[in-house]
Amino acid sequence: MFSCGWHITRDGQDVYSWKLKALVKIGGPLARLARFADLNDQVEACNRVFASDTRWTVVRGSDLEEGESQGLPVWSRHVGDPILESNITRRVDFALFMVAALENDELIHEAPAIGDRQPAVALGARARRQRLTFSSNATIYMTSAPLRATKR
User: Fold this and answer.
1) Terminus of the chain with fewer CB atoms < 10 Å: N or C?
2) Are 67 and 95 in contact (CB under 8 A)?
3) Phi–psi pair at 62, nearest 5 degrees
4) How many CB atoms lie within 10 A of CB 79?
5) Closest by alpha carbon to 72, among 45, 47, 42, 107?
6) In this predicted structure, what is the pLDDT of residue 119?
């Protein structure tokens, strides 16, 4: 299990906002200069994980905020999916997803991009659903691309 930001891509099919592109292009070198973070290290680490034959999941988190849980976040295989429009996740919900992902073999060798479940509720009725259940009493509904999470 590994976590990183949305700036990591597994297959190059992610669609990034101009804000995220600017943040990575300008903020990345500044963070490295200040010895705060090195985005290149994250890219290299993820590339090594992706190439590994071991069981792995790379959870790509959106912006984080404090606050009470809103439930298991939604996820998609690609950044830019409308279900991830909010680009925000509560820290506690990020942790909830990481724990739930440990129990879900369908996320092995996946790099889900996660986001707040609230915008997904509005999108929920638009897609065909396939139910995935975790032993932690969380249920995810899988559509052709995005997922909607609900708490039982």
Assistant:
1) C
2) no
3) -80, -170
4) 23
5) 107
6) 59
Are 45 and 2 within 8 A, CB to CB? yes
DSSP string for the chain: -EEEETT--SSS-----HHHHHIIIIIHHHHHHTTS--HHHHHHHHHHHHH-SS--BEEEE-EEE-SS---SPEEESSTT-GGGTT-EEEHHHHHHHHHHHHT-GGGTTB--EEE-SHHHHHHGGGS--EEEE-TTSEEEEE-SSBEEEEE-
CA distances from 122 to 1, 51, 127, 145 (A): 30, 36, 11, 16
Residues of the domain holding 89: 2-151
Tally of domains in the chain: 1
The sign of the dihedral angle between the CA atoms of 144, 149, 150, 152 is positive
Query: Which pLDDT does position 146 carry in this prediction?
Result: 40
pTM above 0.85, yes or no: no
CB atoms within 10 A of CB 133: 12
